[in-house]
Amino acid sequence: MARSKADPAAALAARIIQALEEQRNRGAGAYPLTLAQLPALVGAETTPAQIAKALGRKPFAARLVVADKKTPDSPLVLAEDAAVLADSPLLLRFALNGLCTAAKPLQPFSKVEGRVGKPLKAAFAAALRRRWEANSWPSGVAALAANGKPHLYLEAYPPPPETVLPARLVRALQARKERGGAAYPATLRDLAEELAPAAPQTVAAALAHRSLKGEVVVGMAGTDAPVALAADVVLLTDSPALLTAALTAARKPDNQALPPKDIKKAVGKTLQAAFERSLRARLESNSLPDGVVCLRIKKTPHLVLWQDIAGAPQVRPAPPASQIAPGLPGVAPAPRQAGGYTDGASFARLFDEAFARLDRARGGNNLVSLVELRRALPAERSAFDQELKRLRREGLYSLAAAEGRHGLGDEERQAALIEDGTLLLFVSRRL
Description:
By secondary structure, this protein is α+β, with helices and mostly antiparallel strands. Helix content is 43%, strand content 14%. The protein is built from 19 helices and 15 strands. The protein has helices at residues 8-26, 38-42, 48-55, 82-86, 89-97, 109-113, 118-134, 161-179, 188-195, 201-207, 233-237, 240-250, 260-263, 272-285, 306-309, 344-361, 370-376, 381-393, 410-415; strands spanning 33-34, 64-66, 75-78, 107-108, 141-146, 149-154, 186-187, 216-218, 226-229, 292-297, 300-305, 368-369, 397-401, 417-419, 422-429. The strands form five sheets. Strands 12, 13, 14 and 15 form a four-stranded antiparallel β-sheet that branches. It has a three-stranded antiparallel β-sheet with strand order 1-3-2. The longest helix has 19 residues, at 8-26.
């Protein structure tokens, strides 16, 4: 009886499957792998043509899933691990490496999905959407919205700044919205400090980029303009920040008390009606933001900034001993006007004095905690933070991170500023 003829391709396919099973058992980092890695596992003399023939041999072909059989750096896995491959950084980088170039760095999802074979395409597309929603990308890969659609690029081939900055701006607003409180809506000045401190004008230019049309809304002109996501336009028009900024911009040296109809003119035209409704509701409910007061002039409500009518600071009495910074005898909070500091110069002077007192009490190391400074200058949180930012912009002070943040107390965590996920707790004078 004649022996059946040996099938080298089938034998090679069996070795490939065995090699994949062994690599899978080795765990993370060893699996998935690429076609180019197979010769080292199944026989160094094996050629790409032989591997391609083996991958198509029945019934073994049904046991494997390959992104692209014709490309050496294509990933592959056992068929039961198709979902693992679809969600792997290896497959994503493979798809982008075949598309991204210095001349054309940005690639839409549709083209990226087209880099993988049909058996993987649906799972790969779903994985891309999950990553987009979670903003979770492997190292070397980044994403942004261009022309209203998600695009991917390799950090080795970054798009021009005018393309990247609008997308970063949207992400910054989303992060601030999640943080809540005074962080959102953000001012244009805040966003410039966060995204492009060396070139703040680029952030203002980015807001006018066509990709942000319908995505972001700006309350008014000027660096103190509040900015929000378009979905939060009601939140923006009702925000204390927009009211204070509009009143500040609309008032004149010889006309500082203004009726609602004049204040709304400082706001963007598309927002004026909603802004005026919000303002009148605040007047009816007596819920004006801190630092803004209402005067009745000929029966018509007029708004004025407290700093414009307060005159000299009204000094509060010294606090009881229980409110003096612990361990610092005689260091009491600095005088403060009832409705806020009279101006930035007053805050800067009081801040300098408080910092000097506290620093001397701590041995003159030029490092003072924000906990102690907030106690010494009991301003409202948003006013304190805004003035401290101004002092930093002017190069007078700097902030340092709190080491060992998990060991911090509640008061320390609350006193710190959060920038890019870092807790900044200690202040130093720039010498």
